[in-house]
Known about the structure:
Chain A has 5 helices and 5 strands; from the N terminus they run E-E-H-E-E-E-H-H-H-H. By secondary structure, chain A is an alpha+beta fold. A 5-stranded mixed β-sheet of chain A has the order 2-1-5-3-4, with helices on both faces. In chain A, helix 2 crosses helix 5. Chain A is globular and about 50 Å long. By secondary structure, chain B is of the alpha+beta class. Chain B folds into 3 domains: about 20-25 and about 465-615, 2-Layer Sandwich (Aldehyde Oxidoreductase, domain 4), CATH 3.30.365.10; about 30-135 and about 195-250 and about 255-285, Aldehyde oxidase/xanthine dehydrogenase, a/b hammerhead (Aldehyde Oxidoreductase, domain 3, Alpha-Beta Complex); about 295-460 and about 620-770, Aldehyde Oxidoreductase, domain 4 (2-Layer Sandwich), CATH 3.30.365. In chain B, strands 3-5-1-12-9-10-11 form a 7-stranded mixed β-sheet, sandwiched between helices. In chain B, strands 7-15-14-13-8 form a 5-stranded mixed β-sheet, sandwiched between helices. Chain B has a 4-stranded mixed β-sheet with strand order 18-26-27-28, with helices on both faces. In chain B, strand 27, helix 17 and strand 28 form a beta-alpha-beta unit. Chain B is globular and about 85 Å long. Chain C is an alpha+beta fold. Chain C has 12 helices and 14 strands. In chain C, a hairpin with a 3-residue loop joins strand 4 and strand 5 (about 70-75). The longest helix of chain C is centred in the C-terminal third of the chain and has 25 residues, at about 265-290. Chains in contact: A-B, A-C, B-C. Chains A and B meet through helix 2, helix 3, helix 4 and helix 5 of A and helix 1 and helix 17 of B.
Amino acid sequence: MPEAVVQMTVNGDATEASVEPRVTLADFLREQCGLTGTHLGCEHGVCGACTVLVDGAAVRSCLMFALQARGAEVTTIEGIAGPDGGLTHVQEAFREEHGLQCGFCTPGFVVSVTAFLRDHPNPTDREMKEALSGNLCRCTGYQGIVNAVRRAVGAEQ
Amino acid sequence: MTAPAARFVGQRVARHEDARFLTGRGRYVDDIKLPGTLHAAFARSDVARGRIVSVDTTAVAHVAGFRAVYVAADLNHLVHNHKVDDEPPGRERPFRLLADDDVRCVGEPIAMVVADSRYQAEDALEAIVVDIAIEDPVLDPVRALEADAPLVHPTTASNAYNDLLGAPNTALDEVLASAPVVLTEIFTQHRYLTVPMETRGILASWDPLREELTVWISTQGPHGVRGQLARVLGLDDSHVHVIMPDVGGAFGLKMHPSREELAVVVATKVLGRPVKWIQDRRENLIADEHPREDRATVTMAAGVDGTLLGAKVDFLEVAGSFPSPGASAAVFTTVLFPGPYRIPAYGGSAKTVFTNTSGRGAYRGPWMIETLARELMIDCVAARLGMDPLELRRRNVIRDEDLPYAMPTGMVYDQITAAATLEQAAEKIGYDELRVQQRVWRAEGRLVGVGMSLLVEPSAISFGFMSTDAAIVRVGPNGKVDVAHTGASHGQSLETTIAQVVADELGVDLGQVRVTQGDTDATPFGPGTGGSRSAVILGGAARQAAREVRERMFAIVAHQLEASPADLVIEGGRVHVAGTPTRGMTIGEIAHQAYSSPASLPPGLPLGLEAQVRWAPDSFVTWSNACHMCTCEIDPATGSVEILRYVVSEDCGVMINPNVVEGQIAGGVVQGIGGVLYEHMPYDDAGNPLASTFMDYLLPTAAEAPEIEYGHIETPAPSNPGGHKGLGEGGAIAAPPAVVNAVADALAPLGIQVRSQPLGPADIVALLEHVNR
Amino acid sequence: MKPSAFEYHAPDTIDEAVAALAELGDGAKVLAGGQSLVPMLSLRLAYFDHLVDIGHIAELRGIRNERDAVVVGATTIDAAVEHDAELAARVPLLGRATPLVGHFQIRNRGTIGGSIAHADPAAEYPAVALALDAEIEALSPRGKRRIPARSFFEDIWATALAPDELLTGVRFPVWNGRSGFAIREFARRFGDFAIAGAVVAVQLDGDDRVERCAISLFGLGPTPRRATAAEHAARGQKADIAADELGQLAMSELTDVPSDVHGSAVYRRRVGAAMVHRAWSDAIVEATGA
């Protein structure tokens, strides 16, 4: 299929590119936008390493075609930063609580947790763990991640 | 010269690596782009065993973006030598790049396509037509050893890959013949996988003009890769440059390149263009190394008072079709089986056998079947004696007064603290109250169980190519410190922990120390990271190198101030006379002097503020140990198991960073829980691996992981000046037996015995229903 | 794992979408949220020459309240269903089923129409639609029609929709009176496809007798299934009817319970019985308190 032109905003920058319809949003961001912080862990929508925000909603970018994101505001991990360009309180919490080891799942977690806490600033433990269950980690055993989310909740309050 | 204060070692220091990982600025192999890169994909066998009748690639050329297709006849002969460093002698490991006349497991690569994109390479795969005449595979290891079993490898005499025969042991035979209590059990463990979040990947670039190969590879051993790739292409090492970028986990999978990665390297040389292959998840699950499938037949003898009198174990280890180098753990399992118990008579043997399945590889604690079999057997003996399993362990665990303890195998425990961890874990979980509460719950009909395991971990094995690690510590002219080392951290936090060690030795701030690794041009030869070695061996090298630099700085300051080095201390980035801080020099000043006026330095002192130390520990193994205890509840309607509490008491010597220690324990524990309750790579009767995606291969999530409670005991290790012990694999070794024992304990009142895994909900229900019949 | 190539069509209106489906024929597939379709394409388990993306058609999205029913537009995302308080009050089963659908990231893209059109045997929405005797609204070149849920699910991943027919909405009846609703499922991990599950809706009369009820099973056959014999046995009975017996009765009606790596048919029946038991008990508690 010949390429189609797609326009979207990525991390605040207006982006226009030519893309084959079958190219996933994840591959579009990684290859054509040069934003390699979004990772491919499974390419079938289970591991969450590819999580980005589309119009503010956390989604699995491997389960979208780039063309489906036309007109949308896409935020990747590279677009998640504190007001001065430093770490957000979510990122800071992951660092304080040793919520990452190899770092591969981390962008997906940070994006997911950022969206989740924005919408649920005071979750119960159960709600929090259920929300985290859409992202897989193999290194941490989730201990540091759960503690990071608790810390981020505490920091907001 | 007094030793510097430990300001960072022992602290829960936040990691240096986190800044880039948290902001998406990590650089993993797929993030690296080279102009002109082509992309590879592999056509694989969908038959477990058969003769390749034909491979028709004629239609491939019409696929958009297609560049090249290769089969065995094109590439296999271009491999000069596929061996890795330290290939065990005397046993030829079966190897071929691409399947040629036959296929020996589902997933075996048959052809490689190279195209402009991975999308197009996969299109091209669909144009390849492979015709295979199916033959009956051999999938069961016991069957595979029978005389009339089909051969996995046609050129071998049998499917036995290796035999580690026990030596005749009449003392043991007598014990087993005469002891009051003798029990024999068979334990089986299923196939479950490493599954790092980042799959394998390689970007290989051959420069035909300079005849140089540059490779970025997701690996845990860049120097080993360099040596192997040089041998593969028939080059000198000096023509091969391997760069380990950020790596998204490995757990043993990425110590040695896969056949696909070797094929990519051959292809880049043929094509003269960079070639990239990123393994997809389905390939990672089906067609990569498959560890853990093991069986153990254990006989244990005890007195009526619970004193263990003897043990015998026979292991059956499944090698699959093409096991990775060093995948067999038979030497370890037979030697380590007695664990932390006084067992006066012991004999072990092991057989390793080929089957038509994916080849075995190493996975975090590759020998762990010995801990599983032993700890499950201890609970079986306790049940037979009507004794509490904690009590049985108390009676037999090696105590301080038994040390040094020589095992019947000849290995010596110079120092372990298994007994102390047993007590700490019991106290932490509230064991006695728990047993009381369990009686109440059982009366209510609840299936609640308590399980435990005692682990001794042979960390930091210093043997063969794994004997040493090296570190280069350099203080530059501006007083900043660079450390280049032979490790290959892929989640182990070495950028931070090694900086902690060096910063302490040099008395500088943590932020002044930069730690690098992974580039074979910039680091000395080393085995990479694995085997729970880094704190001990790499830590030892970094500490010693930093110490040498510190001594040189003291000599310079002493000479400058006309003081004695013994009177000097280093703190706050300054070397000064103890008690007189004004009489001193900052490290920046020392460095400036050392680089700009070497003539002013003490005569005879080596120039510069850099030291490279290659270091080995005093003993060839550094023992660490832990006790895991957990509770679980089973829902009888569904068979699901919930872990309620999970306690680990760990002695890994002096901890460099308790966060890192706990993180390593936690990762291993959840992998172990995953292995028992969720993860399984089953094969059907035709030899098809059935869990080909994450919808079928189930990793535990945060919703399934228990919250782990830690107790730490720090008994300094005698083998290294830092007193550290390795621990990275322990969680994955000790968790499965603790969980299986807890499940068995929960089901025990129903008369159910648990001897095999997995223990998913359907498996539990099968046990419940079997009893009800 | 990259998908095979396809032609991409992005109609702006419902009529354009229907026209596209009619023109493109069998090789075309509707793309809504993509949470079920895209993985199948990436795994190359499915191939389509044409994808018709209906995700940007505004008229297909939204929740419309009618007097006795709620009509949910086809491309209303699961998350919108989850967070609509009025919908949760009027059709409690939708509010309770949605948090069980995958994970919140899936629910941010997945659509209720997509789930029902995809008709996975282990999915929650088809079972809820069946329990409530919902009507599936569809549009084709031949006009509009409403398909009762009982006739909609034909086989695994197969519905009564014609290849040129577009699911435009689902009409869920509202139950008034003393009702109770529950959904219970068992999955290997939180968010996984159910191994077996049950949706229960029950309405009691003034005497605490079952006036009407629905027991809808999922994961226990190629399509969701109403446990009609169990429902019949419950009707007219007092609220404290033995729920475990209902569960057993519900299982005894089933003839084609699946068997796979996650569980045999025998295992699924055991779990299914427990889910009916638990869902029924939950629903009765709510109804008797109402």
